[in-house]
């Protein structure tokens, strides 16, 4: 795998989640999968996978 960030370590696998119980969950704004946030949550909602990927992009943007 390419050492994109120059850290020398392989990235950890993205977390996965599939909420099935509880209140209706908001859709991820990127992939439209259920998130961990209720539909009433204000702002941008991301699923755990997209949230992790966004954190990786932010960390590497320097």
Structural account:
- Residues 1-22 are annotated as: Disordered.
- This protein is α+β, with helices and mostly antiparallel strands and 62 residues long.
- It has one domain.
- The chain contains one helix and two strands, in the order ββα.
- The protein has one helix spanning 48-60, and strands spanning 25-27, 34-38.
- Strands 1-2 form a two-stranded antiparallel ribbon.
- The chain starts with 24 loop residues before the first strand and ends with a helix.
Give the DSSP E fraction (strand runs of 2 or more residues). 5-15%
How is the largest sheet built, in terms of strand order? 1-2
Number of strands: 2
Nearest-angstrom radius of gyration? 14 Å
- The level of helicity is 10-25%
Distance between the termini: 20 Å
- Oligomeric state of shown chains: single chain
Number of helices, where a helix is a run of at least 4 consecutive DSSP H or I residues: 1
Mean pLDDT: 79
How do the helices and strands follow one another from N- to C-terminus? EEH
In short:
With 62 residues, the chain is of the alpha+beta class. The chain is built from 1 helix and 2 strands. Strand 1 and strand 2 (34-38) form a beta hairpin.
Q: What features would you highlight for this structure?
A:
62 residues, alpha+beta, 1 helix
Topology:
Layout lengths: L24 E3 L6 E5 L9 H13 L2
Antiparallel strand pairs: 1-2
């Amino acid at each position: 795998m390419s050492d994109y960030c120059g850290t020398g370590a392989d990235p950890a696998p993205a977390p996965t989640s599939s909420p099935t119980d509880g209140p209706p969950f908001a859709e991820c704004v990127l992939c439209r999968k259920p998130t961990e946030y209720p539909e009433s949550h204000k702002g941008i909602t991301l699923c755990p996978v997209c949230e992790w990927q966004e954190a990786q992009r932010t960390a590497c943007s320097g």
